[in-house]
Amino acid sequence: MKSILHSVFALENFRHGQEEIVQAVVAGRDILAVMATGSGKSLCYQLPAVANSKRCLVVSPLISLMDDQVAKLNLLKIPAVATHSGNKNKSDWENDDRSQALSDWAQKKLNLLYVSPERIAKPEFFSFLKNNPPDFVAIDEAHCIAQWGHDFREEYRLLGRLKKELACSVIALTATATPEVQKEIVESLYLSSPLIRVHGFYRPNLKFQGRMVSSKKERFQEIAKMVSTVDGATIVYCGTRKNVDELTATLRGQKIKAYPYHAGMDTEDREKSHQHFREDPKVVIVATSAFGMGVDRPDVRLVVHAQMPGTLEAYYQEAGRAGRDGEAADCVLYFGGNDLAIQEFLSASLSIL
User: Fold this and answer.
1) Measured distance CA(164)–CA(189) in Å, rounded
2) Is the pLDDT of residue 209 over 50?
3) What are the E-state strand segments in 86-226?
4) CA distances from 140 to 22, 89, 208, 256 (A)
5) Nearest residue to 203 (alpha-carbon basis) of 11, 85, 38, 57
């Protein structure tokens, strides 16, 4: 494993906790790994697939995350493909761009196939998997399974059939999960005597700061001053779409390259914002919690919460996107005013739904 780690992935050593999990994957065990953002969760399933010429099905919630990981794997000459709704000619199951990926998977030419949880729910795709089962399955952002966890997605609740019907081992990975969420993940995925590893979330390169400022205008002014000095990328989280749009306008009014991101935008506009985030040396993304799972830019130097988030777990998940390169980064949380009322309203709305 260490030889492949060096020769294929160009890494000298395992990070804390990785080697034990890799060995457990090789041994065919079910696993729940709770590891900090930036700790190298993806290597835990990529390395065993490459080293042992196995096929790993990766279930991931974001198209951008899948595409980023596949691009990096292909640069390393590792055969990997993502099939999702962003592929061309997506309406035709038999004759679209995905058919080549599925053919390569069936012929065992791929080490990793990335799909969305929605794809698993499609009968024709699951039938294909039953005829061409993976050697093991990796489920990323596994906290989405828990009904009371943040970023809940209904399709994740259906992933337990992978274990039940394909009879393969499963590794579930997430950056944060309370004991209740961990229990829900294990039960929902039907993990059998799983290895459960919860590694520390302490990241010494991150500096946390809280600021009590009730006035939205004052907050926005402080944020504008703060982000203007950042050398690298900045993410500013807001509690509502309205605040995203207002803060973006404020920053642009001060000649700051800022781009909005929230679920109310057109898909094309969201992708443009994400492209700026990936490619611009110095950029500010102003977003709701819709932006972030799988963010893989290493030089995020600042994460600001313009409003208090709903849970401590959500805050850690979002703030943890700073400093993935191990260099110093700042995480600033604003609170006060009607922040609590906003979160109570959102929680009540979700309860009604």
Assistant:
1) 9
2) yes
3) 112-115, 136-139, 169-174, 195-198, 206-212
4) 15, 26, 26, 34
5) 38
